[in-house]
Amino acid sequence: MTPMPLIFAATCDLAGKVRGKAFPAGQLEKRLKRGVGWTPTNVMINCFDGIGDSPFGALGDLLLVPDPATEVRADFGAGVTEHYMLGDITSLDGEPWALCTRSILRGALDRLKRVAGVHLLGAFEHEFQLKGAPGIRNQGFGREAFELQRRLSETLMAALQEAGMEPDSIMKEFGPNQYEVVVGPDKGVRAADAAVLLRELTRSVARAQGEEATFTPIRDVASVGNGVHIHMSFLNDDGSPATYDENGACGMSALTSAFSAGVLKYLENIVALTAPSAISYERLTPHRWSAAYNNLGFRDREASLRVCPVTAKDPASIARQFNIEYRAADAAACPHLALAAVVHAGCQGIEEGLTAPAPTEEDLSLLPPEELAARGFVRLPSSLEEALDRFQSCDVAKGWFADPFPAVYRAHKQAELASIAELDTEARCAAYEDTY
Ligand code: GLU
Ligand code: MG
Fold it and tell me: What is the pLDDT of residues 63-80, one digit of tens each?
């Protein structure tokens, strides 16, 4: 029998998982218009394949419509070509569905265009770990450990390029068997699409080489976490950069300053969307170079939002390279949802006319709570339960998401939490590393 080539139409859902359905490749033209059938209650499937109380029950029909701009066709030599596309979830009439993560991000980007007249350029920097025991120890940023995975790294970079990304760099990160891979920025929704494709490709490339890759937020609390750092800059309609001003504080334009101030103001309310697993809060603790407070850093890696260094020397190139980095995210989050939350918070800062605070240059964990409060610093939530409460209790942040998103998100996450309620931290880490 000759196998029939299939294309998998996929969505990255509230759990940050990539799910969907395959159709015969010969039907592509039809499927680009009509999609594949999808079920509302699927949105309640959590990262452990549990299913929370669904407001939809057995009712309703949706379409998942593949977008050919996200096509991945990759052959890793195992004799099988992976072929998939991300898509939008719509009603049967083609209206965007309120729980479609790509549509949610599109809404946030439209708001940015409306309030500031700019487009977003984004790049997701990912850390991941290979699950096996490290081949060599003591290899933080090591060349030898890099060489051990040179084939994996070279295959992955080729696959990323083939999928339309611009490979930037890959390295052996600090942690045991930890690697970091970076691609160049992409415009709008494509930046989040690229993050999804990068995770999928990394897992597949690793598997094809007998390895297993995990993007879990943290494997072992005695060691380092796996962060997702979202780099953002702004472009005017004509493509000129709008992020930098040589006379602005830390080089930020007024727009960047207001956007950053909004992100910092609402950070405690949005981490439930950007760091959405129970163990995400083991990573978001001081001294991990992740994020523990709502502070701005000027090149400081112990800040939630960082003004990144530029290597260019001439003013035009500096303006193009200049970007800010959101560090309180991880790969349990759907990239589209995480970016939507950050962009909405930034837009809110622009609408409220805020100005970014001065960057911190000290260890905030040493300050007493009264001083932190007096200086406007908030310790980020220390559990997912607390993060969900801070999202739900903030009418402004909740209001950025159309109904029924806030209630559905809470129910989805509550079911996830209930399923691991009896597990200790080590067992929770093991459960999450199996799913991300
Ligand atoms: N592993 C750190 C994190 O969890 C980031 C380290 C770095 O700055 O690259 O975010
Ligand atoms: Mg890193």
Answer: 999 999 999 999 987 777
- Tell me if 219 CB under 6 Å of ligand 1: no
Structure-block tokens of residue 197: 């494709």
Give the HSE-up count for residue 159: Cα atoms under 13 Å, Cβ half-sphere. Answer: 28
Q: Distance between the two ends of the chain, CA-based, in angstroms? A: 35
For residue 291, the ligand 1 atom closest to its alpha carbon is 10
User: How many Å separate Cα 391 from the centre of its chain?
Assistant: 18
Which atom belonging to ligand 1 lies closest to the Cα atom of 228? 10
Name residue 352's amino acid.
E
- Burial of 58 (C-beta count, 10 Å sphere; 0-12/13-18/19+): exposed
**DSSP secondary structure string, 97-124?**
PTT-HHHHHHHHHHHHHHHHS-EEEEEE
- 48 by DSSP, 3-state: which? coil
Q: What is the DSSP string of 117-178?
A: S-EEEEEEEEEEEESSPPSSSS-TT-HHHHHHTHHHHHHHHHHHHHTT--EEEEEE-SSTTE
The number of beta carbons lying within 10 Å of the beta carbon of residue 297 is 21
Residues 245-290 have pLDDT tens digits of 999 999 999 999 999 999 999 999 999 999 999 999 999 998 988 8
What whole-number distance in Å separates Cα of residue 303 and Cα of residue 301?
Answer: 5
Going 400 to 404 to 406 to 409, the CA torsion angle's sign is: negative
- In words, the CATH class of domain 104-435 is alpha beta
Q: Is residue 289 in contact with ligand 1, taking CB distance under 6 Å?
A: yes
**Per-residue confidence (pLDDT) for residue 219, from 0 to 100:** 97
pLDDT along the chain (436 residues), means of 10: 95 98 98 96 95 86 97 86 97 96 98 98 98 88 94 97 97 96 97 98 95 97 96 98 96 98 98 98 92 90 92 92 97 98 98 95 91 93 98 98 96 97 97 97
Q: How many CB atoms lie within 10 A of CB 317?
A: 13
Cβ of 227 closer than 6 Å to ligand 1, yes or no, is yes
> Is 171 near ligand 1, meaning CB less than 6 Å away?
no
- Ligand 1 pocket check for 225: Cβ under 6 Å: yes
Q: What is the pLDDT of residue 250?
A: 94
Ligand with smallest separation from the Cα of 301: 1
Q: Report d(CA 397, CA 336) in Å as an integer.
A: 16
Q: Do the beta carbons of residue 233 and residue 240 sit within 8 Å?
A: no
